[in-house]
Amino acid sequence: MFKFIHAADIHLDSPLRGLSRYESAPVESIRDAGRRALENLVDIAIEEKVAFVLLAGDLYDGDWKDYSTGIFLSQQIGRLGRHNILVFAVTGNHDAANRMTKALDSPANMKILSTRKAETIKLDDLGVAIHGRSFGTQHVDENLAVTFGAAEKGMFNIGVLHTSLNGREGHAVYAPCTVNDLRSKGYQYWALGHVHQQEFVSKDPWIVFPGCIQGRHIRESGSKGCVLVTVEDNATCEVEKIPLDVLRWVHCSVDITDVVEMREVLERIRKAIEKEQTSGEGRPIAMRIRLEGATRISNELAAHPEWLEHQIKALGAEFAGHDLWIERVENAVTGKLDLESTLADDTALGKLLKEILDTPGNAEEIDGLDRVLADLRQKMPEAFGPDSILNLDEEQTVQRLVEEAKHMVVGRLLTVGGPK
């Protein structure tokens, strides 16, 4: 049995974007978040006594400002080397854009696979064959997977590739290929990179995007890290998610539908912050708060955006201190008219709402409803049959559905702008 770590998209020393725009941003405390996440990766590798580490592209983030980035990486790879841990890597599109890497030799325990053709490295003592190919240029639009060799018989075969696969939302197309392209090679594990969201594409064989090791902005929210793979008898026994990030980006949606007082708005926000705070698992959090729903006080909320944002940031500071930074507050609330006053107005909308609310609940009293119910029974007999929770032969069920429909339509009409 042996273990290995699969990581990708380290983007070492890439800045956490947009922090300089915000006066309250904890820039100094999170400036080196990427470095500390890489240190966490090395710590885990040493602790778990892994045989090797696979890095599937984008170690860097384009050209460095100076050589300190490369020196720091060499220090961390060197730590692994002192524990007899090998590192195998392929370069990705960001690495290929880095001209300075060509001036530094790789650490002795690190092997970067060829850019000219697919390369296979055999670790006979482990019975492992590692197949991979690096990016030679920043823009690679050819299918590199088809150039990989067939699986080595009697060995545990791993493919290492930086790719967008058959396309992933929010990621540019690089080295495109299909799942069938990968499966056709007969490998037991595919270590992919480029997609920053962790994804287990397949388990037969394992095809894995580990995601980036540290989120850099709000679009890279949630837990970030690597995977720890355990292999026994030439078969993958376990693939474990390992968080490495030191700062976590979190989306927090707050529904304030039908809230009528500012005090209740702030209370709902406080509860939402408290709930989302646990998702950081003890890490500092950068949180974006989005207010949603329809309320009569939408104009009040929109009229004083700075006051609202400061109130929310004060709540965050009260609850979590320096461990929570409110990155932005988005107000997506829509207006909602008051039902009683609208009904009292002699307007077309008021008259329409009154007619809807006066609609009887008995199906026999609603013109055409019997035909609609009969059509539903015919089209979806199982969904609306006598054994379902939507038994349309029961008068109480029909009355309930009519009442729900009335309230839904009234609610949408009261929302400023009409139904969406």
The CATH architecture of the largest domain would be 4-Layer Sandwich
Structural class: alpha/beta
Shape: globular
> pLDDT average, as an integer?
84
How much beta, percentage-wise? Answer: 15-25%
Give the termini separation: 57 Å
Rounded radius of gyration (Å): 28 Å
Write the CATH homologous superfamily of the largest domain: Metallo-dependent phosphatases
The largest β sheet comes out as: 6 strands, mixed
Task: For the largest sheet, list the strands in their spatial order.
Answer: 4-3-2-1-11-12
- Tally of discrete structural domains: 3
Primary descriptors:
single chain; 420 residues; alpha/beta; six-stranded mixed sheet; 30% helix
Quick description:
By secondary structure, the chain is an alpha/beta fold.
Can you characterise this structure?
The chain is of the alpha/beta class. It folds into 3 domains: 2-243, Metallo-dependent phosphatases (Purple Acid Phosphatase, chain A, domain 2); 248-331; 339-414, no CATH class. The chain contains 12 helices and 17 strands. The protein has a 6-stranded mixed β-sheet, with helices on one face. Strand 5 and strand 6 (128-132) form a beta hairpin. Helix 2 (33-48) packs parallel to helix 3 (68-81), helix 6 packs across helix 8 and helix 10 (348-357) packs antiparallel against helix 12 (395-414). The longest helix is centred in the last third of the chain and has 20 residues, at 395-414. The radius of gyration is 28 Å and the shape is globular. It starts with a strand and ends in a 6-residue tail after the last helix. The relative contact order is 0.10. The mean pLDDT is 84.
